[in-house]
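Kindly inspect both lines:
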Amino acid sequence: MEEKRKPRSGMPAMIHSVSHTSITHAAEQAQQWVSELAKDLDWNEQSAFRLLKAVLHTLRDWLSPQETADLSAQLPTLIRGIYFEGWDPPNPVCEHKKRDFVICIRKSFGYEPEIDVDKAIGAVFRLLDRHISHGEIVQVRNSMKKSLRQLWPEG
């Protein structure tokens, strides 16, 4: 049963509800992204999720606040929540060199010597290529240093 809120200062009463369908759809989209990444890397979904989160956080911390917001607008709802989790825009976490980007991801993901981190990062970037508009991807890539753009396969 939905609860009607009492009007405040002359505003009409509003009914607030979240549709079960929209929550299910958001969860399905997030699961699809994780499943695609796991399949691309031949990993389990738990590891794919950890990698996706690590790369998204590092990427977010490297982009300008405006570019961060622009990219987030195209992310599925739950992935957007993961993207912004713990964000502190005035305090960049890493330097802006490819080596430092990879180190930030390793710190967040955890060090696993058998993993080719450059290949794993490339898989996340390819996932973004498939789901984000080409124009936004071009803007994100162009905002990165040339050495880091090498991790992002041209699509």
